[in-house]
Amino acid sequence: HPKTFHYLNQSKCFELVGISDAHDYLATRRAMDIVGISEKEQEAIFRVVAAILHIGNIEFTKGKEVDSSVPKDDNSKFHLKTAAELLMCDLKALEDALCKRVMITPEEVIKRSLDPQSAVTSRDGLAKTVYSR
């Protein structure tokens, strides 16, 4: 339900008079069929959208190291795991993408931990980047 997803519940508006989400979903699927988007491609699109919603529900807290962050609780770990499964990527790689900044120099790869607020910024940036593609 939209109320359970951070990216959907910010406006506090969940229903519009005269709008049927179920009808609009079916119309979207029909339109995707008409323009030649295969069933497999449609599933991939909806999987990515679902992953973005789960990414938005990941919250962070301070980690053991100075200026580091980790998923806040079991709920955040659930959303992280679900997003990784939907994106078909490695769980630890996704967590690192959210909680660490990677700098690549000609000599080395440097990973720097992000504090919880920076991890939220990283989370939202990743969600926007994935959505834009």
Automatic annotation (TrEMBL):
Q: Which UniProt keywords apply?
A: Actin-binding, ATP-binding, Motor protein, Myosin, Nucleotide-binding
| Keyword ATP-binding annotated | yes
Q: Which family does it belong to?
A: Belongs to the TRAFAC class myosin-kinesin ATPase superfamily. Myosin family.
The protein's matches in InterPro entries, at most eight in alphabetical order, are given as: Myosin_head_motor_dom-like, P-loop_NTPase
The protein's name in its UniProt record: Myosin-9
Q: Which GO terms describe its biological process?
A: actin filament organization; pollen tube growth
Alphabetically, the GO molecular function entries are: actin filament binding; ATP binding; microfilament motor activity
Q: Where is the Myosin motor domain?
A: 1-133
Would I find Disulfide bond among this entry's keywords? no
Q: One matching Pfam family, short form?
A: Myosin_head
A GO cellular component annotated for this chain's UniProt record is: membrane
